[in-house]
Specification:
Layout lengths: L4 E8 L4 E3 H5 L6 H8 L3 E3 L7 H16 L6 E7 L10 H9 L5 E5 L5 H12 L7 E9 L9 H4 L4 E9 L5 E9 L7 E2 L14 E2 L1 H22 L9 E4 L4 H10 L11 H4 L6 H11 L8 E8 L3 E8 L1
Parallel strand pairs: 4-5, 4-6, 11-12
Antiparallel strand pairs: 1-7, 2-3, 6-7, 8-13, 9-10, 12-13
Helix pairs in contact: 3-4, 7-8
This protein binds acetyl coenzyme *A (ACO).
Subunit structure: Homodimer.
Enzyme class: transferase
Pathway: Lipid metabolism; fatty acid biosynthesis
Length: 317
Amino acid sequence: PSGFTILASAGQVPAKVVTNDDLAARMDTSDEWIRQRTGIHTRHIAGDDESTSTLCTTVAQQLLHQAGIGADQLSYIVVATMSPDYATPATAAQVQGAIGAANAVAFDISAACSGFVYGLHLMQRLLAGPDVRYGLVLGGETLSRLVDWTDRSTAVLFGDGAGGVLLSNQGSGQYLGRDLRTLGDQGAYLTARALHGQAPSDAFLHMNGRKIYTFAVRAVPRSLQAAVDQAGLSLDQVDHFLLHQANARIITQVAKELDQPLDKFPMNIAAVGNTAAASEPLLLAETIAGGQIQRGEVLALCGFGGGLTVGTVVLRY
Ligand code: ACO
């Protein structure tokens, strides 16, 4: 099999919406600061009955329904997350159990905001094997449970949600190129849930925003260019660049750096904030559902963040 086709795409966010003004009422920040520095207006926050696994399970059910495929036909389920319900079982195993995908091998990958792109690459390899046909790649987060709600430098940035795709190794879609990189020597710039920490605060998400910003505006254009080169295409031949929604300013700067029109970079950060591994699949599902992406178009998906990690996958939809 040589195809790699997105048969279905779906996203799910918690019902509860938290505005910048809601945050300004509980910490020293403002709607103006958050909008100007990040582009975020609102984010969705999980309720008591919602978790990373419940959001991912809803997405998985939507994907099967859309594609008209039975859960027993799935060979693999991969969930990218940095905020799983448990260290074990894996979120993917919880999803597999909940949807009754008896024939699927299911496991999580931990690559923060690059997790979905790393997952697509992995699934392309997995689906090249014999006697397999369908796999799910999901990204899901409840980052609201990792952040320190007294730390304005991180609490205003993140949101909860899940998204994903159902992939087949047949059909008209194609995997065209990729560029994945890990910079483990810079991992200290973004950490969460330390189990060995000395202080209770070590369990929270900590980020050196300036360092990650500088990393992103250098590494993302390079990764996009390398993946497009590998695909044997030019940047002009990419129809849509779906970037991790961490900061609207990063996306604007990347578009400028690559000399590509900003309207090729769809954004939903205003409504959902930074949802880490859920970011690109939520955006993909929204743009496909909105009719902005057509069959046959070339997509470049790029994630970057904790690890540090960066990754781009180029596909024909
Ligand atoms: N409200 C008001 N003021 C604030 C807030 C806030 N929420 N947060 C910080 N400030 C203040 C700071 O204290 C600082 O004040 P000072 O100048 O008096 O010291 C000032 O605002 C500027 O702070 P900076 O951190 O320098 O602000 P910056 O312009 O760098 O924006 C931001 C911060 C938005 C975090 C930016 O650095 C960024 O987006 N970084 C990249 C993050 C990213 O891409 N992450 C991706 C990976 S995420 C993942 O993997 C999970």
